[in-house]
Design brief:
- The chain is α/β, with parallel strands linked by helices.
- The chain folds into two domains: 203 residues, 3-Layer(aba) Sandwich (D-Maltodextrin-Binding Protein, domain 2); 96 residues, D-Maltodextrin-Binding Protein, domain 2, CATH 3.40.190.
- It has 13 helices and ten strands.
- The longest helix is centred in the N-terminal third of the chain and has 15 residues.
């Protein structure tokens, strides 16, 4: 039978098959886990035991990579780590943090705030953090944000950009008169989020011809945009596919997608001070250029995110 470590590794490498892979792995683990434990089942209940912590990730490649970075940084300080990779969207992972099934999760401050308070529109990073802290569950806390940002974006393919005269200086507002002729693709949650169709309509007045539920900026969304099955899509701004396929990211002058600094979200009091210090040290070293390089290694060069995480931590003196 396949070992639980190999199942976990295969899930890490395929963000686009999140639901299918997760369901298969869960079923297989139920019958084949020789230890009888829940460590590799992302949806299993139960807190970290003893001195250990559970590091979770959302269902896209960069979140898995960041979780590996956090987990390996904690291991370097002698902390026992269990991974729950590729769990799902924020709507799921936030609940697992609240009930103690997950201890540490890489987050994006602006997107987290939009989830907690859809009406919030802070103008600074500091105001974003303060607004999050005012709405966070009492058992959760944010550690220090990193300079690294990865935003959701409205991105069009090369053919659409050429047809409508769009370039890197164009904005989302430039789609107002043509959106009714375009299909847009994104994760299912994009339909109901303010940082999604709701905000695109209320802030920019966009009404698209159709919406295609795909994945969270992953291979399904990328392929649909490349093949013109959709003409616009929610693509993360550190995605190496943008340059490779000559996609055009539209500017967001109304700041709908806000600040999106990578920031650890943790269970209050369940991470030792040396663990807190380790994650804050990661944040201090991680900038956008570095994140793009690490993403490229995973998504374009097909390197294992765990190997990429270990190599970067070593190069940054954090291992």
């Amino acid at each position: 039978m396949t070992s639980t470590n190999r199942i976990s590794r295969s899930i890490r490498q395929n963000r686009g098959a999140a639901v299918v892979a997760l369901a298969a792995a869960t079923a297989l683990l139920a019958g084949c886990n020789s230890s009888g434990g829940k460590a590799d089942n992302p949806l299993a209940d139960g807190n970290a035991s003893g001195d250990g912590v559970v590091v979770g990730s959302n269902n896209f490649a960069e979140s898995i990579l960041l979780a590996d970075i956090y987990g390996e940084a904690l291991k370097a300080k002698g902390i026992k780590v269990t991974y729950k990779p590729n769990i799902g969207s924020r709507e799921t992972t936030y609940g697992l943090l609240k009930n103690g099934s997950v201890t540490v999760l890489p987050e994006y401050n602006g997107a987290l705030l939009a989830y907690l308070d859809p009406k919030a529109a802070p103008k600074t990073l500091e105001a974003t953090t303060s607004a999050i802290e005012a709405k966070l569950h009492a058992k959760l806390t944010l550690l220090k944000p990193s300079p690294a940002e990865d935003k959701d974006s409205i991105t069009v393919n090369a053919a659409t950009a050429e047809k409508y005269g769009l370039d890197a200086k164009s904005s989302i507002a430039d789609l107002k008169d043509v959106a009714e002729d375009l299909s847009i693709g994104a994760s299912p949650e994009f339909q109901t989020r303010r940082q999604g169709l709701v905000g695109l309509k209320s802030v920019y007045g966009l009404q698209f011809k159709s919406f295609k539920a795909l994945d969270a900026g992953g291979p399904l969304t990328q392929a649909a945009l490349k093949k013109n099955a959709v003409q616009a899509a929610d693509i993360f701004t550190t995605d190496p596919t943008i340059a490779k396929e000559k996609f055009v990211v539209l500017q967001d002058p109304e700041n709908l997608f806000g600040f999106e600094n990578v920031q650890p979200l943790v269970r209050e009091g369940e991470l030792s001070q040396k663990g807190v210090d380790a994650l804050n040290a990661v944040s201090a070293e991680l900038d956008t250029a570095t994140l793009l390089d690490l993403d490229t290694q995973v998504q374009s060069q097909n390197k294992d995110p765990l190997d990429v995480a270990k190599a970067w931590l070593d190069s940054a003196g954090l291992s």
